[in-house]
Amino acid sequence: MTRISGRYLAKRIVVSYLTLLVIMSLLFVLLRSMPGSFITSMINPQMTREQIERIRETWGLNEPLWRQYVQFMINYQTGDFGRSPTYSTAVSELMLRRLPRTLILFGSTFIVGYIVGPLVGMYLGWWRGSNKDKSIFSSSLLMYSMPSFWIAWLFIWLFNYHLGWLPSSYMFTQFPEFEWTAFTVMRDVLYHLALPLLSVSFIGWVGAMLIMRPSMNNVTEEGYVFLARAKGLSERTVMLKHAARNALIPVATGAIVGLAFIIDGAVVIENVFSWPGMGQLIVNAVLSRDFPVAQAAFFVIAALIVVMRLFTDVVYTYLDPRIKFGEGE
Amino acid sequence: MATERSDDRSTLEAARKRWEPRFERLRSGWSRFTEHRMGVVGLFIFVVYVLWALFPGVFAPHSTQWVAYLGEPPFDARLSAEQIETLPHPPAFGDPFFAPLGTNSDGQGVLTLLIYSAYNAMYIGLAAGLLSTLVGVPLGLISGFYGDTWIDETIQRFVDIMYGLPFLPFLIVLVAIRGMSTTNIIIGIAVTSWLNNCIVIRGETLSLKERSYVESAKVAGASDTRIIFRHIMPNVLPLSFVYLAQDAAGAILAQASLAYLGLADFTSLSWGIMLRNIQNSGYVFQAWWWLIPPGLALMLLAAAFYFIGFSMEDVTNPQQ
């Protein structure tokens, strides 16, 4: 029983592709309307006009803007992200190196957040209004209100500066005394992951809880919950099997919000912990006007988000049979 | 003369009669709000911050020009080398000067800066929250109600496009283009944060319009506008209140993050800038009296918005 028609899906895929094209065009315009250019870091006052012209020529800046735009769009269709003027490597290589690092850090916090959050939310939503609900809910809101870099500083102060248990920066030990094997690499990454993971998860799980709690509370008034209770099922079974499953629908949409939150958190947290991921890359690229890298980084993130949104729309129809997309076609 | 006065009184009477139910609703809403200790605490923090923002001079021990050891300007001396050595100074109460939360490395009182910064945070939170709600909620309602039509398509494609741009990096680009003033930061935050409201309200509307009361309103011949704003909107209002509060809190935290990354109007006073200055001067792990208060102030204001928002949800949507 398919609740989503193939034609609708095909249409959505085409539309997602067009969305990406529009995002890229928007980025092209926005990034170039920022004052300054990456070229300023390459030239100095001693250079002659010809030398500067030659540099501009090499980076294709002397072409008219529309031709740069057409070239940019064509290059991206063929997977050619160009070269970075500040990192002096191919941008695609840079992306391939940076993206997994961000995914390690924020994928793990995402998983932790979306396990803990809905579970606590389910519990609070079910017992809404009780004293336990009130105290847990308000203290989790306090957690949620902390500036991420500030709480990261407090954790670094406690676990690194004061106790000296955990490293406060980088992803690997800088001058290791051990040999790099698969095991030591993993151990080393986990060791460096601990503090950033703790700092982000400390705040991150509340987002999922905030969606789950009211959703769970709404569900408690539905007929099928009443029916399940009337059947004599235990409170636990009703909560887990009948109420929570239906209450998870908005959480699925919220997970996409959570995905966007990943990159936002990444920007600040990677900066605090000198974690060499996408967040740091994109901010540095924007600030140094490294357009090839900034475009590619935005593009990768945008592609990720667009694909995930497409994916949720499909999942949505499976989770809530009442919603049907593409029926009228 | 006399008849005129009685006319006055009767119109007054009529007005009061007309407004009585509304006052009654407000009063009962207020009494329900005060049942939530969390909301009352939030409101209390909010009021304190509003007072700080409006009358900083009354609460702050010094003016922002005050410098440790020298006092208020005009200064008749300069800081000696030994005095500079002692900065940032831990909390001191009268000896050698009065600074309840100590000073920063420039000799300014931390408590003074904290209180004078409330205005900035308040302004950013309220303005950005209101702006993004006013854009996001109506668009979400319309989009959800006309789900699967070209109206929904258009709005959702626009949301998709905006959504593909990550919040903070995009905000950095916007702020870099328009300049780092507080107003531009607010506009940047609002441009990027109405999407959440729109998506959530749309999702809610999508499932609400399948409910039987919407069907019956339709059968009864109600227009689309009436169904949207009369039948569906009251049901999503609690959620949009929550999101207004969340946006306000989010805006305050986003501004702090921007300041941390070095994108803020550094001529103004804000908690984010205070935190940025600690890092710049390298005292993050040495001067707790300078590190803790700005973060705590940010946390409490953001939490106050959340507290009020979530208690409002219970008031407008009493389910217990």
TrEMBL record, chain B:
Membrane topology: Multi-pass membrane protein
A single cellular component GO annotation: plasma membrane
Pfam families reported in the protein's UniProt record: BPD_transp_1, OppC_N
Domain ABC transmembrane type-1 per the UniProt entry, residue ranges: 118-309
Organism listed in the record: Candidatus Halobonum tyrrellensis G22
Protein name: Binding-protein-dependent transport systems inner membrane component
Main location: membrane
Keywords, sorted A to Z: Cell membrane, Membrane, Transmembrane, Transmembrane helix, Transport
Database matches in InterPro entries: BP-dependent_transpt_permease (IPR050366), MetI-like (IPR000515), MetI-like_sf (IPR035906), OppC_N (IPR025966)
Keyword RNA-binding applies: no
Family according to the record: Belongs to the binding-protein-dependent transport system permease family.
High-level lineage: Archaea, Methanobacteriati, Methanobacteriota, Stenosarchaea group, Halobacteria
Chain segments annotated as transmembrane: 40-60, 121-146, 158-177, 183-201, 227-246, 252-275, 287-308
Protein localization: Cell membrane
GO BP terms, alphabetized: transmembrane transport
CDD domains assigned to the protein according to its UniProt record, in alphabetical order: TM_PBP2
